[in-house]
TrEMBL record:
Pfam families, per database record: Rv2632c-like
Full protein name: DUF1876 domain-containing protein
Matching InterPro entries: Rv2632c-like, Rv2632c-like_sf
Superkingdom of the organism of origin: Bacteria
Organism for this UniProt entry: Streptomyces edwardsiae
Length: 91
């Protein structure tokens, strides 16, 4: 049996200043639809300025939100296809 390989491309963009980093994550699915999520990180005034750390935190939070949205989307598709309410999908 042959299996088809599918790939998703996830994009992350960052906007930052001296105190805050914001991230936007977006995945484009094979059907052409897109799912977007946001994350942020705030630097405490006593912390040293480490932009990469802010990006890692904001990016991880955006990806976590993206994952939750994908689980919710999949759960809805399962319910729509089966005609019943299924158990929630947990991480």
């Amino acid at each position: 049996m042959m299996h088809t390989t599918v790939g998703w491309h996830i994009e992350l963009e960052f906007m930052e200043d001296d105190q805050q980093t914001r991230a936007v994550a977006m995945v484009r699915l094979p059907d052409g639809s897109e799912v977007r999520a946001r994350g942020h990180a705030n630097r405490h005034h006593t912390d040293s300025n480490q932009p990469r750390v802010g990006e890692e935190i904001a990016g991880a939070r955006a990806l976590n939100e993206l994952a939750m949205q994908m689980l919710t989307k999949a759960h809805g598709e399962i319910d729509d296809a089966s005609g019943r309410i299924s158990h929630p999908i947990h991480v």
